[in-house]
Amino acid sequence: MAKILVVENNTRDADRFRELLVQEDLEIAICRSGAEAEEMMASDGRDEFAAAIILWEIPGPPFGFALLTNWRQDWPAKPAVIVSGTLDATLATRAAILGANDFLEKPLEAERVKSCLRSLLAPHETLSPLLSALQETIIGKSPELLSALRKTARLIPHVNSRALLIGESGTGKELFAKAIHQLGPTAGAPLVAINVAAIPKDLAESTLFGHEKGAFTGAINQRLGALEEAEGGTLFLDEIGELDLSLQVKLLRAIQEREFRRIGGSRDLTFEARLVCATNRDLAQEVRKGAFRQDLYHRIAEKTIQIPPLRERTGDIEILLHHFLEIYRGGRPIRFARETLSIFRSYRFPGNVRELQYLVRGALIDCEGDEILPKHLPLEKMDAQLLGNENPPPANPGETHSPLSADRNTQELLEEITKSLPQSWVSLPYREAALHSERAFDRIYLRHLHARVRGNVTRAAQTAGIDTKTFRKRWKESGLAPLNGPDEDET
Fold first, then answer.
1. Whether 51 contacts 81, CB under 8 Å
2. Are 22 and 28 in contact (CB under 8 A)?
3. Does residue 489 register a pLDDT over 60?
4. What is the pLDDT of residues 323-373, one digit of tens each?
5. Quick one: which of 89, 1, 5 has its CA closest to 40?
6. Burial, 285: exposed, middle or buried (Cβ in 10 Å; 0-12, 13-18, 19+)?
7. Which of 11, 215, 332, 337 could form a disulfide with 211 if both were Cys (CB 3.0 to 4.6 A apart)?
8. Which DSSP category does 28 fall into?
9. Where are the alpha helices (DSSP H) in 301-429?
10. Which helix (H) or strand (E) holds 81?
11. By the 8 A CB rule, do 156 and 170 touch?
């Protein structure tokens, strides 16, 4: 029997939820305040909850929006519903941005509540065998990733369809290419992967098309090229945007005519392989600049799959962290500290999944205990990204910071305040309206400060000019994930 966490301080509405959930053969746990809900969500039995119903106006701190944020961070795959006494499009939009799956209005209507719960708790759609197999290989449950996996699953059976994988470095383009090969009709045949950017320019043509003995100085033996080696299988050309224009013409002919010649060869060879290309460039822009042939672009981009960067699929971060922890821990009983998870949630991962993987491996090497702490991360390298600044600080003391970094930090704060304020905030009493903004400021300021000092609460408090007790109090009241561990770093 599924159990639902209901955060509701109105006795009549709480009883109504209990009545309706019992009718649906569901268990219910009711919390009357944000603090009580936070405690229950952090308890040992928290994993038993299948979904949460959270009153937006619940007395806090933490308030409803903070509870929703914490729920979504801890359980990205479990549904959450927001309840409010006011049907407000702005509120519903804000709730959706924070991860709410649905929105219920008071007074509660029996059929609406039941319909909502049935929809959220219904078994997930029946996945195609290909999509299921992809999800076992490529880790994550975010809608952004699932969209890319669906397109890939539809492409896989069509061996003659050429695919262009578009994504930043580290997003997993090669992993997608391997899955396309291994799950499709070419499985069992060769998969030949070539990183175009890594081939010396004078060897690129030979690497792709091969050469005959004596074709040029140093060609003492015949060499088969990648197109020939991939026969019957898959040819994966990574960083295709780096291919020289002269070779783009030859590749285009091989694709169009399904044939090519080795360097120095006198006869045509058949090109019979599935072609998958990948790039981190905007090839359409490269075409406009004359750096990439338009006809080749249209040939290789018959089907395009956009692979999202990790910063756009933040719900997958914790899933990936635990996935790589399980791979590399070697049987050690080890876990991430809450402060460490908080840092990872704030980090933008410019290196995407590959960087996350390396960070987990590095932390496991440095950690001798049973808990990965902030001090086990290379925070001096991560600092600029933790601040939301993609540009590193200036090398010379006399230089000034780009205004871009300040704009990003300010923008993050403004967005947090906007999400925190109810639509009718101007009609609220001064203290209540100010409290919403104050809590939003604390969440941004304290989280970044805490990350910069590697999770050392004492140092963070000193930097902020307050004592550690006040720092911890404001941290808790702001709705951030609970701090854990000692104030001082262990050195």
1. yes
2. yes
3. no
4. 999 999 888 889 998 888 888 888 889 999 999 999 999 999 999 899 999
5. 5
6. exposed
7. 215
8. E
9. 317-328, 338-346, 352-366, 379-386, 403-420
10. strand 80-84
11. no
Enter the pTM of the model: 0.58
- 472/483 Cα distance (integer angstroms): 7
- First vs last Cα of the chain: how many Å apart? 47
C-alpha span between 490 and 375 (Å, rounded) = 8
What's the mean pLDDT in 403-410?
Answer: 44
Q: Which two tokens stand for residue 299?
A: 């040939």
Please report the DSSP string for 30-78 in residue order: EESSHHHHHHHHTSTTGGGEEEEEEETT-SSSS-HHHHHHHHHHH-TTS
Among 479, 485, 442, 483, which residue's Cα sits nearest to residue 464? 442
Among 87, 80, 121, CA closest to 107: 87
Q: Kindly report the CA angle at 405 between 401 and 410, in degrees rounded to 5?
A: 125
β-strand partners of 54: 7, 82
Residue pLDDT, tens place only, 221-246: 888 999 999 999 999 999 999 999 99
Who's near 77: CB < 8 A, 6+ residues apart?
A: 141
User: How far apart are the C-alpha atoms of 240 and 299, rounded to whole Å?
Assistant: 13
* Separation CA 355–CA 325 (nearest Å): 14
Closest CA to 364 of 332, 389, 410, 318: 332
What is the mean predicted confidence (pLDDT) over 408-433? 67
DSSP run (H or E) holding 306: strand 303-306
Q: Give the position of tokens 């006869």.
A: 267
Which residues, other chains included, contact 100 with Cβ-Cβ below 8 Å and sequence gap of 6+? Answer: 68, 80, 81, 82
> How far is the C-alpha of 323 from the C-alpha of 317, rounded, in Å?
10
Which amino acid, residue 342?
Answer: S
Residue 5 per-residue DSSP state: E
Beta strands 49-55 and 3-7: pairing type?
A: parallel
Extract the tokens encoding 145: 């990733």
Confidence of residue 412 (pLDDT cuts 50, 70, 90): low
* Single-letter code of the amino acid located at 426: V
